[in-house]
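[Automated response] Your request has been received and processed.

Submitted sequence:
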Amino acid sequence: MTRCIPWIPRVTLAASFALLAPGASADGNGTWSIQDSQTPGGRISYVWAFDPVRNRLVLYGDADPFKSHYDPSTYALPLSGTTRWERLTTSGTPPDLGSGTVTTFDPGRDRLLSFWIGSQPLGALSFSGTPTWSSVTPGSSGQLQAGAMGVYDAPHDRLVVFGGNGGGPNPHFLDALNVLTLSGTPSWSPLAAAGTPPSPRGYGTAIFDAPRQRMIVFGGRDSAGVRNDAWDLTLGASPTWTQLAPAGTAPPPRELAGAVYDGTRQRMIVFGGSDMADTWALSLDGPAAWSELAPAGGPPGRSQMSLMIDAMQDRLMMYGGEFLTDLWQLPLSGPTPTWSEIALPEWPAASGYFVYDPPRHRALQIGATDLWSYSLSQTRDWNHETIAGPAPAKINYSALVYDPNGDRFVSFGGIAVSPSSPSSETWALVLGGAPHWEQLAPEGTAPPARWQASAIYDPIDRDMILFGGTSPVYGGMVDTWQLSLSGALRWSQITTGGSLPPTSGRYRAFYDGPGRRMVVISADMPSGPWSLPLTGTPDWTYSFPSNFPPSRTNYCVLNDPVRRRLVLFGGVLSSTTRETDEVWSLNLGGTPQWAQLAPAGASPGIRQGSVTAYDPVADRMLVRGGYERHQYPEEKDRIYNDIVSLTWGTPLLDAPQASPVRVAWAAIRPNPGNANQEIEFELAPGVDLASLDIYSPAGQRVWSRTFSGLGPRSHRAEWNGRTTSRPRAPASVYFVQLTSSAGNAVRRIGRVE
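Generated structure:
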């Protein structure tokens, strides 16, 4: 499947069913929050530190440069409880990442510190409260170089740094020894040490031996090649270099290894480096001695991994390395330590269709042969679903709708992965039981082959309404077709008149329930809306909304059914050719008008090419993925593989929506419920109530009751959870609509098992 194309007609669910009174609108700006994010992904140049206060690995920095994208997000991986990556919401400006970064945890200030080449400012990420990035400029310049080795000297509250590669066309290794004091104004200064220092080198590893107040340096690369020697530097009143002469067989020479201090057993543990997979220990509480640890199992060989001691569970933890994303643990107690991999939740790349699955309260990412489901409950995990049977060969840019009666997504048209002749086939992804694709064979004449079409589901007549698209034969198309989904499947063309949308456009279609119409806006401007009534004479009309947003492309948009409006996010501004994080709404009741929203919370970042779905249970817009193009040739695109949410309400607990037309709610008891639910409402004088209707998240009317002769007072109705088509309504969120002579009022009602 392709990723986030500007004119993909995003799936139109009948959850687009709008339930507010005509002309009613909501001014909810919403609040942004991170719903979930991917694992950091394979990368080569990143910084990390172990946060012992919260027992977690914190990682920041560049993604795999060979994939030509950039991810400056900050991630945390808890080592206790549920082990899953979380993208931290941070404030401040993350630092630019230089190669050869030295990173440490500063326990006195509860922060991560990163140090770059030369005299650049330090990057500091404080963890108390909202994690915040800041820049710390030392009072004097340092000489930190790529491949330097450093430790945090806690008794003296300073960072001690040795060696590095001075750069240039050929390696230029250094034996410089510097310290950065952290108390007061941070300041670099050279550290004079007696004794013979190690050869100038870089890419070795170092640990701080706290009981003996010394730094241990092992291996690395110098001008003669890769090394396996070990040195100590005392850090007391008279710093002194001494080469260690450990007993036992030394590890093979290596660079870019991982090393940690095992305080319980007074030893340094070394793993990997130079793409090796062996584990070694250097005893430190007496005469130094090497011993090879030979645990069973083990991860593949690697370099530049994250290695840490989880003191709470007395185990060695290892994550990643060059382009790797696996997590391993090695218990340090017991007679036969054994490596074991810790399974992390899978996270698919953002591609294909992103839709809401109403019966199961989950999001789906749909491809031709790939189906992922994402739980929207507390578990928040992706599951890779198995799809049985043959799959459509051409589903990219197809039109897709959810058919609640068949519990299936119905697709028409599309092309293959590479541009090719489009399809005229009709397929269904059936979700009940084992998910599987079925090719449908509707009666009648099918629409001509096309791609980039858009479609809606009409829950009243149970039809798929297809509009427009692109064909190599006809070019831009603005024809309208109907596929009956109840009874015998049949395609038939709808002959339309009026002010049709231009044939040069690409469109996104939505179902406006109260207006019983299909609403279409351009995927390129945005411009519109055009509307086509689904009852009476099918003539297109064009509305002229006020306060148009700045022209843009590659944005995402959905229907907010509670407030009867379209909500648009992101895209590329035509005036600047840069991405934006703006949010705009277009009300569909009364006179159409665009309005820019001002959501609270941290912005999800400027982006284009995102996909979106509406979650009716939490009353929120889910935004998946997207990307930000680089501005300069030396930069990389920033690829988002996350889910962020713009939340307007709270699940079932938002305040009753009082209509401005003298129809008001009193209460729904209990809400949610699993037995009889009492619906209480009030009518003003002169108002006659016609009906009380309950709609599913898919926009289908599941229960209805008519009234006559009700007076101006409080009234009650009772819903026992039964529907017109099945004995019991499944657990979900539903919408209750009061239809009166003066207008409508809507509220949500929930059913639980």
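Summary generated for your ticket: The domain at 14-34+347-647 is CATH 2.120.10.80 (Neuraminidase). The first strand starts at residue 31 and ends at 37.
If you did not submit this request, please reply to this message.
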